[in-house]
Design brief:
Mean pLDDT of chain A: 84
CATH architecture of chain A: Clam
Order of helices and strands of chain A: HHEEEEEEHEEHEEE
Low-confidence stretches of chain B: 8-15
Shape of chain B: globular
Distance between the termini of chain B: 37 Å
Mean pLDDT of chain B: 89
Radius of gyration of chain B: 17 Å
Strand order of the largest sheet of chain B: 1-7-8-9-10-11-12-13-2-3-4-5-6
Strand order of the largest sheet of chain A: 6-5-4-3-2-1-11-10-9-8-7
CATH superfamily of chain A: Lipoprotein localisation LolA/LolB/LppX
Shape of chain A: globular
Largest interface: A-B, 35 and 32 residues
CATH topology of chain B: outer membrane lipoprotein receptor (LolB), chain A
Structural class of chain A: alpha+beta
Number of strands of chain B: 13
Oligomer: heterodimer
Largest sheet of chain A: 11 strands, antiparallel
Helix content of chain A: 10-25%
Strand content of chain B: 35-45%
Low-confidence stretches of chain A: 1-8
CATH class of chain B: Mainly Beta
CATH class of chain A: Mainly Beta
Chain lengths: 193, 217
């Protein structure tokens, strides 16, 4: 079982392998469960949603609970739509925040296997099929200490993302029901609804 | 319908000064006071809300807010983060001073920390100065009037349409904050709340939906 797992994950042993595997991934669709861990919280805050990605940089990051919201990245700019009090989705100013403008292109970059040529993070391979990413800029380290990506058995697929703001404050996203190269409608990346 | 009524009450409140309260008979006041007290949680609580903020000019932003509060020592620890979980602001108010542990961009302004803590204290803590009187205002709405922090006055009202509302006035009777909420549960926690505060370009509205409440030891 361990051997099989090791063989499966051979693609993630080097950045060249990761890039080669990612080159075969033109689109991804996956469900995710997000846990927010903070020292202040008695138990993690859980959110659920779905991710859609299509090369080169189209991304839809959709939360279904506890609040419905959709982040769409188009032409390098992130926009967020959140369910209003009246029930429809409305554009939300917090999507323009600098932090989100940084994180969204990063996610797109990871999914296309771009790690080493990243101007914001130093990337290294770590044990447990992980890629460790540390911000180059001290200013950025104020809000992200490091990011860990855990590779899945399927070549080119990320299983888990951990974003550490500090050792005790981190976000863990676990992906499931991942479909590689599904046929994705253009409207997913243009229309929040 | 309940929210429409609450909204109307807010609009009426926007034009109002400190309203006159027709006091209840003295023997009824303890029961009313007890009822008013039930609108505030007691003990230590962790509350998580989805917060929709609307600012001057119509700009909207949505956040997740976490508050750990204790009525024992009147402390507040709050975290404000994006829906995606990125922490934008974290601060502790130990009742004597506010310590900002983390803040980015517009949240770095010290006035913001003061304002957040004042909003939380207004919404979740019984006014510290105690009950001044209880009775009914002009339209018959049952009201408890408290002495708040500083020289503020806080009216807690139970509109006939349901839920509850609170108005905070300064010493001159100028309205500082208004809140409306659904009826509280047996623990003093409402599933939906709204607050209006600030004035002019600094005016804002927060709509808060309870995600979870956890009673802490």
């Amino acid at each position: 079982m361990l051997l099989a797992a090791g063989l499966c994950l051979g693609w993630a042993d080097s950045f060249d392998g990761i890039r080669a595997a990612a080159a075969t991934v033109m689109a991804v669709q996956a469900d995710f469960v997000q846990e927010k861990h903070l020292p202040i919280l008695a138990k993690p805050l859980v959110s659920t949603g779905r991710l859609y990605y299509r090369r080169p940089d189209a991304l839809r990051w959709e939360y279904t609970a506890p609040v419905k919201s959709v982040l769409i990245m188009d032409d390098g700019k992130a926009r967020r739509f959140v369910e209003s009090e009246q029930g429809g989705l409305v554009e939300d100013a917090s999507g323009r925040m600098q932090a989100m403008q940084v994180v969204m292109p990063e996610i797109s970059g990871w999914l296309s296997g771009r790690f080493q040529d990243n101007p914001l993070f130093d990337a290294s391979l770590s044990e447990g099929n992980r890629i460790l990413m540390v911000p180059k800029d001290e200013g950025m380290q104020r809000f992200i200490q490091r990011i860990e990506l855990v590779m899945a058995g399927t070549p080119g697929v990320i299983q888990e993302v951990l974003i550490f703001e500090s050792e005790k404050a981190f976000t863990r996203m676990v992906f499931s029901d991942t479909h590689v190269n599904p046929d994705l409608d253009d409207r997913l990346f243009q229309d929040a609804r | 319908m309940k929210w429409l009524l609450a909204g109307m009450l807010l609009l009426m409140g926007a034009c109002a000064q400190l309203p006159t309260i027709e006091p209840m008979e003295a023997n009824r006041i303890p029961a009313i006071e007890m009822d008013c007290r039930s609108h505030f949680p007691q003990g230590r609580w962790q509350l998580v809300h989805t917060i929709r903020a609307r600012f001057y000019g119509g700009r909207q932003a949505t956040f997740t807010g976490v508050v750990v509060l204790s009525t024992h020592n009147e402390s507040i620890h709050c975290v404000l983060m994006t829906v995606e979980g990125m922490v934008l602001f974290e601060a502790v108010d130990d009742r004597h001073s506010i310590t900002v542990k983390r803040a980015f961009g517009p949240f770095e302004n010290p006035d913001f920390a003061q304002g957040v803590m004042a909003d939380i204290r207004f919404l979740f803590f019984m006014p510290e100065g105690g009950l001044i009187t209880a009775g009914a205002i002009n339209d018959g709405t049952r009201t408890c009037r408290y002495q708040g922090q500083g020289r503020t006055i806080v009216d807690l009202m139970e509109p006939s349409g349901g839920g509850w509302a609170m108005h905070q006035y300064d010493a001159h009777g100028k309205l500082l904050r208004r809140a409306v909420a659904d009826a509280v549960n047996s623990q003093g926690i409402a599933s939906r709340m709204g607050i209006d505060a600030g004035s002019g370009r600094h005016a804002y509205h927060l709509s808060m939906d309870l995600v979870e409440s956890v009673k802490l030891p």
